[in-house]
Amino acid sequence: MYHYISIPPEDADVYRTDLSVTPDKFRAQMQYLADYGHTPIDLYTLSRAITNHEPLPPKPVLLTFDDGYLDNYQNAYPILQQFGFVGTFFIPTEFIDSNRLGYMTWPMIEEMAATGHRFEPHSRTHPDLRDRDDAYLLWEILGPQETLAHHIGYTPRYFSYPSGRYDENVLAMMQRLDFWGAVTTFGDDELGFGNRFAWPRLRVRFDTSLSEFIDLVNSTWN
After folding, report:
1. Residue 30 in 3-state DSSP?
2. H or E stretch at 20
3. I need a labelling partner for 195 at 20 to 30 A (CA). Which of 7, 107, 180, 222 fits?
4. Residues 6 or more apart from 180 whose CB is under 8 A from it?
5. Of 184, 163, 191, 185, which is closest to residue 56 (Cα–Cα)?
């Protein structure tokens, strides 16, 4: 799980810093994956493996990016392209619609989608979805799904909960809207059919060293 792929500004607070991975570190991490036979996949491939028992490539890994920051296009995208890797990007669509400073644009997203990267909704406005009524959830979940479908040419089937927060009403809405899975910010490596609406992820941080990244990757294969 990534957020910013950039050097934090000098006035960055602790949260901005923690959510950042420098381009040099990110490139080194992707180089490790390439050198040691890991194959980035998307969530559709994961679902087919779980439900249809389709074989996965050697050492599969999912690379996810939350929030749709501009540096995902400027820095992460060319590095992923260099290695022939696919990424999954979770987008709060209102931030793109309003041309918010520091976020990608629809032409950027369309370009990346055309080269095989996946884009999935991360809500409309990145709110806490807990304790909300159905109308609000439809606005924040179905609306972004439809917006993304318009721009990428297919209906996205996965969701990332803003800040990882959800409750039973949100889980019910995921099923009602025929999503195939959703991801949280909780750290674990168990990805199966039973927890498909609460898949955990492993966070890569600003201070994650290459050796720690290697340990994260290989912890799932021990």
Report:
1. helix
2. strand 20-21
3. 222
4. 43, 44, 47, 157, 158, 196
5. 191
